[in-house]
Design brief:
The chain has 3 helices and 26 strands. It has about 425 residues and is mainly β.
């Protein structure tokens, strides 16, 4: 709920796996469907990356090792580059339409893992006025060192068809991406913090936020660093006299620490994302155009602190989370309305500041709670956000629209309930 806006979302998930059909071979399936309701009459039903997998464990290999082929015949949202949201990109542009299908082949043997994956969809070719199938390829792997340290790397190449802008029509839209992560971990696994805003766009949000947590009374610690780099080519230039811009880079860096002692968990996270990374899945401002070279830009910086404590008798885990953000911004000295500054959020939406105002930091505080009662789990979050960059347009005495500051306060709540059978 946000200033009177309410939306409901339910997820129905059914999964299972057979016993061995042949030596080391088993088959499994997951049916995952989201039901959304913006109003009582506006209902939507969407697949949430339902999949079918075949698992083969060669003779003599340990449980969990082997090859897994996963097929995603309806949607392939779970195939993306990167590790922890929001430091990820799906590499599927808005020009894709129809079902986005995919497949992934994974290998795990001892401390080593590797995978290759592909997803595809139809893209409109505006030059020939027909649809073409385009592909995005992924590959990567990792290695565990001394059972406490892991190193992972991924890469991807996406072909998103041709840029439909008239003066660059026929230019291929291509991107090349890499991601890497280093993690140090000791003790039992530490699940993610209760943070709806961070994981809202994660197709596996249900599994991640509601993953059962183990409290063994011992000290567990995890420290990780990740980096994401995307290079996008084929974007139309906004610079005079130049039709196609040079490939546009986008970068993100994040560091996160997790600590669990007895029944208390503490989370610290800091991240930086360039403005261009916010548009990596729908490049350009405007769309399919590179950001102007002469513009003054600032990257998005954020720091998050969260803590929660589990009460075993009550099966309840309350917590607090605080986040401070310097939002990404783009300042233009010349525009139809004179100097303007655009301030962006994670969704790529923006507000326009008055000419005499500079971007301000935003902060959010949230009270969280988790309850686990047998097969039923529930997450709740009540939050307050202060964003001094909120603006609106108002007609002045001369009949012209002007930019004025809006109420900086946003408050609301989120609830997530899961029943497992």
């Amino acid at each position: 709920m946000d200033h009177g806006h309410f939306a409901a979302l339910a997820n129905f998930d059914l999964r299972g796996e057979t016993a061995e059909l042949a030596r080391g071979l088993s088959v499994g399936a997951q049916l995952s469907v989201n039901l959304s309701a913006e109003t009582a009459t506006a209902l939507g039903l969407a697949d949430d990356s339902s999949n079918l997998w075949l698992r083969w464990r060669p003779p003599g290999w340990a449980n969990g090792e082997g090859l897994v082929l996963t097929l995603l015949p309806l949607t392939a949202d779970r195939l993306y580059l990167g590790y922890e949201f929001p430091m990820t990109v799906s590499l599927a542009q808005s020009a894709w339409h129809g079902p986005e299908t995919g497949a992934r082949l994974s290998f795990l043997r001892g401390p080593a893992s590797a995978f290759v994956a592909v997803k595809s969809a139809l893209v409109s070719n505006e030059a020939r006025h027909e649809d073409e199938r385009r592909f995005t390829f992924f590959f990567g792997g990792g290695f565990d060192l001394l059972s406490h340290l892991s190193i992972e790397a991924e890469g991807a190449h996406a072909d998103d068809g041709l840029n439909p802008e008239p003066f660059v029509l026929g230019t291929p839209l291509l991107s090349w991406s890499v991601a890497g992560r280093v993690r140090y971990h000791r003790g039992s696994p530490i699940g993610p913090p209760t943070d709806f805003d961070r994981y809202r766009n994660d197709p596996a949000v249900w599994e991640n936020l509601l993953r059962p947590e183990t409290y063994d009374g011992r000290l567990s610690a995890s420290l990780g660093a990740e980096v994401l780099y995307v290079l996008q080519g084929g974007l139309a230039s906004v610079n005079p006299g130049e039709s196609v811009a040079s490939p546009q880079p986008a970068t993100g860096v994040a560091v996160e620490g997790r600590l669990k002692w007895n029944r208390t968990r503490i989370f610290l996270r800091g991240q930086l994302r360039t403005l261009s990374l916010l548009f990596a899945d729908q490049p350009g401002f405007p769309v399919l155009r590179a950001l102007p070279d002469a513009a003054q830009r600032s990257s998005a910086l954020s720091a998050t602190v969260a803590v929660d404590h589990h009460f075993d008798v009550a099966h309840l885990t309350p917590g607090l989370r605080f986040e401070l953000t310097r939002p990404a911004a783009l300042s233009l000295e010349s525009s139809p309305l004179g100097p303007e500054t655009y301030v962006f959020d994670d969704a790529g939406t923006f507000t326009v500041l008055p000419s005499d105002q500079s971007p301000l930091p935003t902060f959010r505080i949230a009270a969280t709670a988790r309850a686990d009662l047998g097969p039923l789990s529930a997450l709740g979050e009540a939050f307050y956000t202060h964003d001094g960059n909120r603006t609106t347009f108002r007609d002045n005495n001369e009949g012209l629209s002007e930019i004025v500051s809006d109420d900086p306060s946003t408050y609301g709540f989120d609830v997530l309930i899961q029943a497992r059978f």
